[in-house]
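Fig. S4 source data, part A: sequence.
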Amino acid sequence: MATEAPKPKEILLQAAAQELGPEALETVKLSDVTQEVPEAQSTLPGIPPCITQNPTPQNLKEDPAQIMVGVGSSIPRWQPGSVIRWSAWRSGYASQDDADYAAIQLDMAAQKWNEANVGVTFEHVHLAKDANFVICHGGDAGTVLASAYFPNPNDLNFVYVYTYAFQPNWKPNLWKVLTHELGHVLGLRHEFAMDPKRSLLPGVKFEGNAVEIGEQNPLSVMNYSKKAPEIQPSDISATRTFYQLPAETKIQDKEIIDFYPM
């Protein structure tokens, strides 16, 4: 009787487990986490930078409300109605409590987007082999708190939480920062992506290669601000519009490309 061939991410995870030991890929089971979550604040101790790079997860080291969308010549998004499944690696953090905390905070951020009903939902799964992305520790990236990825055909992606996110003055707002990062996972760019004037600010680079849906809102969850990121009604409206557009729709010569989460 024929059997289904393993997916590339299953082969990758099996190889990592053989090389590093199964404990390196242990995941957080949300139902077992009981630690208290501190109350988030309305303002931040600074303006959190956001990066788009691909560090190696620490456990594998030994081996807009004016919504901006689009990357390069296309506009990637998930197939409308998709479920983006995620898991959380336990290893690589300074402590097990930090690993549990990151998983809880990501779950809170995911629930906020799920409540918005924008056309794609997030769901926690226990095993990385069943996930589209894993939240994990990305090491020390200076004052960067977290980073994510855009919709793509990859088997497995990563949302990174960095060391600075666990500083006492930032830690209570991690789930709000992660709502911003999940905006990227949905295909949203920074609200200021096409504003060259923002590149004059410290730590902000002109990004370009984006198109806008909706009207500008400086309070957008996809903006940089001293105010803690929160999903605005205009973020919800514009993201719903984005996910209601037919596949292959062109916006300013960029074509919407749908991906199905593996």
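Fig. S4 source data, part B ends here. The first strand starts at residue 67 and ends at 69.
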